[in-house]
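Look over this entry.
=====
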Amino acid sequence: MDKIQKLAIGSIFVGTVVFVLKYAAYYITGSIALYSDALESIINVVTAVAAFMAVRLSATPADANHPYGHHKVEYFSAVLEGVLIIVAALAILREAYFGLLTPVVIDAPARGLAVNALASVINAVWSWLLIREGRRLRSPALVADGRHLLTDVVTSAGVIVGLLLVPLTGWSWLDPALAALVALNILWSGWGLIKESIGGLMDEALPETTLVRVREIIAVNAEGALEAHDLRTRHAGRMTFIDFHLVVPGSMSVTDAHDICDRLERALKAHIEDALITIHVEPAEKAKHAGIVVL
């Protein structure tokens, strides 16, 4: 079991602990805003399970039916997480609406908020770890899970501050109003997550800064070739796909052309570890005199 799968299992455990704490805070106080926080934590557990299944399947080696591997399954997990976030937000909005119609007095707010704050601290530490390791390991599922938890931390902080004002102001309607704000923030987070994941499913190119570096590596390490053109890139989970045409002199032997391709692959993989590189060698008359100039 690799580190990504271990982190995914950790998310299930952490999510369960946080949910228990947040539900306890809601049970103590009866606050709709804390109920919204607890409801989102249920989604955290469900999506953590989905993320674990996704990263486990994405690690499966390529086979005859999936010759490019199973890496894109992580994007499906992230889309599912976004959809569930939106469903949770709609459920919270419903409770907030009825809470605004009939506001209730919150019981034992200090004790409930202390329990909720403990859960938020746990979430903050874990979300930071997931985002950092997810980016390092290039796992969309872990990054998505971490960002979702970070949103949860921010909204929880807002809820805690807002509920502290309820006993000071006597405004009972502030509790459901905070729940509604939490729901709107969750909706925005869910939409952003779905949008980003769809980008991965649609084979978006690498970021421009990475593309510039890829072009530089090709230009510096293609000595003996004439030019490179038709560079295309895409990413799927941890894998990065790079393909381009390499123009060499017509008199060059297959062995020499192959050596240049091997040198390019080594240089590119040194910069992008999990890269699948395809190079199409062409003779001089196929040069387009546009693209990457070999230095």
Remarks:
- The chain has a mean pLDDT of 81.
- Residues 208-293 form a domain with the Alpha-Beta Plaits fold (CATH 3.30.70.1350).
- DSSP finds eight helices and four strands in the chain.
